[in-house]
Amino acid sequence: MRHLPTRTSRTTRRRIVGALATGLLCAAGVTAPAAQAAPPPPERPETAKAQASPALADGLALTPPMGFNNWNSTHCRAEFNESMVKGIADLFVDKGLKAAGYEYVNLDDCWAMPTRDLGGKLVPDPIRFPHGIKAVADYVHSKGLKLGIYSSAGTKTCSSVGFPGGLGHEYSDAQQFADWGVDYLKYDNCNNQGVDAKQRYRTMRDALKATGRPIVYSICEWGSNKPWEWASDVGHLWRTTGDISDSWGSMLSLMKQNLPLAPYAGPGHWNDPDMLEVGNGGMTATEYRTHFSMWSIMASPLLIGTDLRKASAETLDMLSNREVIAVDQDPLGMQGSVLSSESGRWVVNKEMADGSRVVALFNESGTAQRIATTAGAVGLPDADAYTVRDLWQHKSYNTAGTISATVPAHGTVLVRVSADDKWAQNPPAVELGLGGSPFVEAGRPATLTTTVTDLGRTPARQVSVALSGPAGWTVEPSSPTGSAAVPTGKALSTSWTVTAPAGTKTGAYDLSLKATYLSPTGTAVESVLPLTAHVVVAPPAGTSSLGDLPWLSTSNGWGPVERNTSNGESAAGDGHPITIGGVVYAKGLGVHANSAVEFYTGGACTSVTAHVGVDDETGARGTVAFEIWADGKKVASTGVLTNADAAQAMSADVSGAQSVRLVVTDGGDGVDYDHADWGDATLSC
């Protein structure tokens, strides 16, 4: 389900080939072909609550499916073939992914010929799969793994080639899949001819059941008909969103759509916010760790979407983190719930089968932030102290009850917290923090303050702290860097003078804050917090177009943020003149929800103004909301705007702020066609 016909991704085809075809054919009175066997069961009244709709009682997918799907890395290219699929199965074994829990090797679109045979049967592409699908299944099974396959609940699949879909052929296709040894079916939603979604997906459910073979059934109807409300007795998992892309904005949007649906997930019936993009190159390592952490705490299917033949050691280590995987695969089957999300500081909590809680401290913003909760707030009983296990650092600590961390931009700290009597065996948890502005003007000293706070029940002893920067930078303390002891709830605070050499180019630079201390038993502990300093230039006096000013950071749903043009979704410069309601704006910013663009203001600016709205190039589609933030506080917002709305004048007082951030959200209905414009956006200083 994508946006503009210039794109060639499956999501473009979904909207154009699927949804548009559905509307046109439906209007023309086209009806669905009849199924080849018994008609679908009669409709039953549906309830509004997930708990009232029982899961399939077949023992399948009692934990979220884990495996691989080729689409995100190969699409329909020729490299998707029998050799590749077998090679992925080999890598599952050789790289330890099978041992970590990954089980399914799934084929996506383009495995078949464009037409059925004279008997109406599906025909595997003889070039891609010269030995047929059964031979591939047999090979995958020989490795102790399972094979998945793809079809669509329509007359054709989502590919522009138009491979045969399953509508009207459900029982025949299901039997073919079973005869081949298929263990998993992803059933898409393109070219559905306007036939009721419940009817289409129930028919394939019944067809799969009739084969007698256990086949996990993945309903991929993009959340269009709220399958979480009716599909728990139809399929084992259902897509809650459109397709993911390998970008921070896309991943964030899908996460936000999926998080509120926690009550509907459980063993045998899972919310699916789409496959993993970890390792595909469009996000940073920090962002990929967030992606994997949040999919795991949401009890989402973990389907690897990167080409494992080319995966780096870092990617494989991330995907193989068994402590994080255990969060996803916990047999209680709870999806994590949001406790708070103020100002982009997310706390998500998941109850585990052993009574512990997994807590994600997720920082949506572009700068490091302190995020905190307590053991009581996440549902743990009162106790003298608790054990906190960092699932990425693989280290355990004790805490008196506070669960907190300074989380890097776009990062996630994932911990497992338990009330047990072994907490004293672990050193006290300490929280490293940074105060002061992270913005540095080259050649001018800046003052930063670091803190080392003891969160544990026991004191931290012989505490010392060090702050380091890039080569050539001067980083000097102006207050003590050590303490003989830091008691529970107290902190060592140190001031630093940081100077970037004159002539340093603007941009982001890495700092590192390191604390060392001893536990009460004498165990040496080291804690490191990566930080970012931005070398900036003072904003020009007067009124300037934001389309011409340097920014600190950007994130965007599709493609890059564009200066003085609309967003074209792909490469920089592929946009068009900014146009809202027929009015053309020569200057401004073109973005795609979810988006954030941050500028340095240095306390010297007073206001931001713009004319905002959905760009005309999306036709009658797209819903967005605009926000202006100053130093982490929202100072202006529009509410939801559609393409039918004229440009809305927007202004905000940003007096005294060190930075401002222009944010566009998706209006709450996903990011399709969400091309948003900041027309004539200006900054006055």
Short description:
The chain has 685 residues and is α+β, with helices and mostly antiparallel strands. The chain is built from eleven helices and 38 strands.
What would you note in describing this structure?
- The chain has 685 residues and is α+β, with helices and mostly antiparallel strands.
- The strands form eight sheets. Strands 7-6-5-4-3-2-1-8 form an eight-stranded parallel β-sheet.
- A hairpin with a 2-residue loop joins strand 34 (623-630) and strand 35 (633-642).
- Helix 9 (285-297) runs parallel beside helix 11.
- The radius of gyration is 27 Å and the shape is globular.
- Residues 1-53 have low confidence and may be disordered.
- Which residues sit in consecutive blocks of at least 5 with pLDDT less than 50? 1-53
Helix content: 10-25%
Structural class: alpha+beta
**What's the total helix number?**
11
Taking all Cα atoms into account, the compactness measure Rg is 27 Å
Strand content: 25-35%
Quick one: how many beta strands?
A: 38
**Biggest sheet statistics:** 8 strands, parallel
- Give the overall average pLDDT: 91
Alpha carbon gap, first and last residue: 42 Å
Topology:
Blueprint: H1 10-27, E1 66-69, H2 71-74, H3 82-94, H4 97-100, E2 104-106, H5 132-142, E3 146-152, H6 170-180, E4 184-188, H7 197-211, E5 216-219, E6 237-239, H8 248-258, E7 270-272, H9 285-297, E8 302-304, H10 313-319, H11 322-328, E9 337-340, E10 345-351, E11 357-363, E12 369-374, E13 386-390, E14 395-399, E15 402-407, E16 412-418, E17 430-435, E18 439-441, E19 446-454, E20 460-468, E21 474-477, E22 482-486, E23 491-499, E24 507-518, E25 524-536, E26 543-545, E27 553-555, E28 562-563, E29 578-580, E30 583-585, E31 588-592, E32 595-600, E33 607-614, E34 623-630, E35 633-642, E36 648-653, E37 659-665, E38 675-684
Parallel strand pairs: 1-2, 1-8, 2-3, 3-4, 4-5, 5-6, 6-7, 18-25
Antiparallel strand pairs: 9-10, 10-11, 11-16, 12-15, 13-14, 13-16, 17-19, 19-23, 20-22, 20-24, 21-23, 24-25, 26-38, 27-32, 28-31, 29-30, 31-38, 32-37, 33-36, 33-38, 34-35, 34-37
Helix pairs in contact: 3-5, 6-7, 8-9, 9-10, 9-11
